[in-house]
Automatic annotation (TrEMBL):
Superkingdom of the organism of origin: Bacteria
Pfam families assigned: SWIM (PF04434)
Alphabetical list of InterPro entries matching this protein: Znf_SWIM
Record protein name field: SWIM zinc finger family protein
Keywords assigned by UniProt, alphabetized: Metal-binding, Zinc, Zinc-finger
Residue stretches making up the SWIM-type domain: 59-92
Length: 530
């Protein structure tokens, strides 16, 4: 058992905080993790306890001894999770039996809830009736409470899908603001999308342990992408300068809310980092709010107990402000400190500069992404290659583009081979097929025809290699394939007027594989040997 012992007053503080912030079920799950010995590497770093808790995977857990509310875990749970609870019980072990503490805390939690319910029932008659619709002059947090009320109890099941929620929210919620001022309606529509994003993230976390989790996760990711695209379209349609002048309080509350939940760095179907940067890009001409947010990020980054993923998220967010203000050198200097750079985090800049035809800036980001793009998903890799090819058209030479494609082989094979054909670099094209051991039977007839019309002799090595490789497979089907290739090879030699060279080759081939009787029979059927 781990023997780290914190001061008694700190332990008493944690017990009160756990009693206040935890649900009994989550707390009991945390005790089970502790009881099964899943807590390891527990140590004191400054005013924080760092520990590793093993679940389906190992999670990094931090307990803040000064302010428990700033404790965090690398898991996906939104709130105080069982991993933090497990680390808490490990800390209590030197003082007594954690199972007895669990019972005391559960009883205290039950008493607290009972008291709250009693107080709520006393005040129920005095409480003002909740509005049946959101109010125009209410703050965004009130709108979100209304949204939550409208979809209270909605859960993912066989009958209700994430797509159903998405469609229902878009159909019902905008109508409540139809009579509002246009400037408030704009902000309201953004909050509908933010609400949908948060609910999708919630559904994603709730269904991860379901036996249908793959289908639910896939649905969450598809719908999340739709929300991100809708958010981008909505932001682009708003004149942010005029809107912030008309509704400063709503926009200030919106940015504050976004900053609070968009930079947690946890696994989510929502690309919160993308959404955060899309919002703040619209405020690039508002130096005061940019400075305030930058200072907030600097304060967060100064904390020592951050997980690597959270720190990377904050670094990218802070670098974004340097980028949109034109301080690229400062941005790249900051990005160089990332622990785990991810290509997809920077496609926002690639898309922006490509769409606005700023080719020099596009080239800067293409070069920056090159070291990590080979790890990108298929769609991002495709976009990278396409953007490079289009950008190369605006350079004095395509030498760098060719070098990039060669460095990314074999993954860039399809993009590179198409470019070589397009630019009529047929010899390089053939060399590429030879290097990748591609059979002519696997290539498009139109491609081979184009090279044949240019110079049929370039294709000879390709057919030679494929035919001999087929023979080496040493079975009747492969011999038949080899003969098909040899027939085409014979036609090329005939076309080139080199039949003597063909006869010399085929007799040498027969001699090389003289022990393969079935192959010899195939050669005789073709009347190439006697």
């Amino acid at each position: 058992m781990l023997k780290l012992q914190i001061p008694k007053n700190r332990m008493n503080y944690l017990m009160k905080q756990v009693q206040h912030h935890y649900d009994a079920v989550i707390l009991e799950n945390g005790w089970e993790y502790y009881h099964k010995g899943r807590v390891s590497d527990i140590e004191l770093q400054g005013t924080s306890i760092h520990a590793r808790v093993k679940g389906q995977k190992v999670h990094e857990t931090i307990i803040n001894l000064e302010d428990f509310t700033h404790s965090e875990c690398s898991c996906n749970y939104d709130g105080f999770c069982k991993h933090i609870a497990a680390a808490f019980f490990s800390l209590y072990a030197p003082y007594g039996r954690p199972e007895l503490l669990l019972q005391q805390l559960k009883q205290a939690i039950h008493s607290r809830k009972k008291t709250v319910r009693s107080a709520a029932s006393v005040l129920q008659g005095k409480k003002l009736e909740k509005p049946s619709s959101p109010l125009e002059d209410s703050m965004p947090v009130e709108w979100h409470r209304f949204f939550e009320g409208k979809f209270h109890g909605f859960s993912i099941s066989h009958q209700q899908s994430i797509e159903t929620f998405y469609e229902s929210a878009l159909e019902t919620l905008p109508a409540y603001a139809s009579a509002w001022k246009p400037s408030v309606q704009e902000v309201y529509r953004l909050h509908i999308i933010l609400f949908m994003m948060r609910k999708i993230e919630q559904f994603y976390q709730e269904t991860k342990s379901s036996y249908l989790s793959y289908y639910h996760e896939n649905g969450c990711k598809i719908t999340a992408k739709q929300c991100e695209e809708r958010m981008e379209e909505t932001l682009q349609a708003i004149d942010v300068k005029a809107s912030t002048r008309a509704e400063p309080k709503h926009w200030h509350a919106t940015l504050k809310m976004l900053s609070e939940f968009a930079l947690h760095g946890k696994d989510s179907p929502i690309d919160w980092l993308l959404v955060y940067r899309l919002f703040w890009w619209e405020f690039k001409n508002h130096p005061k709010v940019l400075k305030e947010e930058t200072q907030r990020l600097e304060l967060l980054l100064s904390k020592k107990e951050l997980t690597a993923r959270r720190r990377d998220t904050l670094i990218i967010a802070k670098a974004h402000f340097d980028i949109i203000q034109g301080n690229k050198e400062d941005a790249f200097r900051l990005l160089a400190t990332l622990k785990h750079p991810n290509t997809k985090d920077f496609f926002i800049y690639l898309h922006h500069y490509y769409e606005s035809k700023q080719w020099e800036e596009t080239l800067v980001w293409l070069r920056y992404l090159l070291p990590t793009v080979d790890q990108a998903n298929h769609e991002d890799f495709r976009v990278f290659c396409q953007y490079w090819q289009d950008t190369a058209k605006h350079l004095d030479s395509d030498a760098e583009w060719v070098q990039v494609m060669e460095s990314l082989l074999p993954r860039s094979y399809y993009y590179y081979t198409a470019y070589l054909l397009h630019t009529k670099r047929y010899r390089q094209w053939v060399d590429l097929q030879l290097a990748n051991r591609i059979s002519p039977l696997s290539l498009y007839a139109m491609e081979l025809k184009a090279i044949e019309e240019h110079d049929a002799e370039l294709l000879l090595p390709l057919y030679h290699q494929a035919a001999e490789r087929a023979v080496l497979e040493k079975n009747r089907a492969s011999y038949t394939t080899a003969v098909r290739l040899l027939k085409k090879l014979h036609a090329f030699y005939k076309q080139l007027g080199q039949e003597d060279r063909w006869e010399h080759y085929v007799y040498r081939l027969s001699d090389k594989f003289s022990r393969l009787r079935a192959f010899q029979e195939e050669l005789k059927k073709g009347k190439w040997i006697r």
